[in-house]
Design brief:
alpha+beta, 4-stranded mixed sheet, 4 strands, 193 residues, 60s Ribosomal Protein L30, Chain: A
Length: 193
C-alpha cells in the first residue's frame, strides 16, 4: 500500500515557480550570510626592533632550528634546558598501561631526538611487577611498551625507529616483594641502539 501526500500549493505551475523562486532566494541569503566580509586593508605599522630583546627562538617562517639535541658520551640525549640526560625509564600504575602526564614532555624530547637522528633506533622494554600470571604480565608489559611507542611516533619519530619487547616480570629493577619494589618494576625503559 502506498501513501501520497497532496500539497495543493504545488498544484499549479505558477505556484511551483513561486515556491522555487522563494526557495532560491532563501538559500542564496543563507549562502551570502555565511560568507566572510573582507577585512579592511590598512598599511602595516612600522615596528622598531630593539636588538637587545631579540628572540633566540627559530623564526616563524617555517624554518626548522639548525641546532640538534646534544648527547652524552654514551650517545643518550640530553635535556636541552638543563643539559642533564633525559630520563629513559617511565613508570606505570598497578595493572595500567597509561602514560603519566608528567612524562609527556620528556617523551616528546625523545621523539625529537629520534626525529633528528633518523639512523638511531630505540627498543622500548615493557616490564611488570611479580603479581599476575606470566602470560598476563607479558601482555601488560607489551601494552605499556606500545603506549610509549604510540606516543613517541605520534610526536614525530619514525615507526621504523621503534621496536617493542615485553619482559613481563622476568627482569625486575628491584627484586624485593614490597609496594616500593613493585612500583619500580612497573616500567618501560628506552634503550637506544
Amino acid at each position: 500500500m502506498s501513501y501520497y501526500v497532496h500539497i495543493p500549493l504545488l498544484d499549479s505551475a505558477v505556484n511551483r515557480n513561486l515556491f522555487s523562486g522563494a526557495l532560491i532566494v532563501l538559500l542564496s541569503s543563507f549562502v551570502l550570510a555565511g560568507c566572510p566580509k573582507p577585512a579592511p586593508t590598512q598599511p602595516p605599522t612600522p615596528v622598531e626592533e630593539d636588538p637587545s630583546r631579540a628572540d633566540p627562538s627559530p623564526s616563524s617562517s617555517g624554518e626548522e632550528s639548525q641546532t640538534q639535541m646534544q648527547t652524552d658520551a654514551m650517545g643518550n640525549p640530553l635535556d636541552p634546558n638543563t643539559g642533564a640526560p633525559l630520563s629513559r625509564v617511565f613508570y606505570f600504575d598497578y595493572d595500567e598501561a597509561i602514560i603519566s602526564r608528567d612524562d609527556f614532555d620528556v617523551l616528546s624530547l625523545h621523539a625529537v631526538f629520534l626525529q633528528e637522528n633518523r639512523d638511531m633506533t630505540a627498543v622500548l622494554e615493557g616490564h611488570c611487577d611479580e603479581r599476575g600470571t606470566r602470560d598476563y604480565n607479558l601482555a601488560l608489559g607489551e601494552s605499556r611498551a606500545m603506549a610509549v611507542s604510540s606516543f613517541i611516533t605520534s610526536s614525530g619519530a619514525g615507526a621504523s625507529q621503534i621496536e617493542t619487547v615485553s619482559y613481563g616480570e622476568e627482569r625486575p629493577a628491584n627484586p624485593n616483594s614490597s609496594e616500593a619494589a613493585w612500583a619500580q618494576n612497573r616500567r618501560v625503559e628506552i634503550v637506544y641502539q
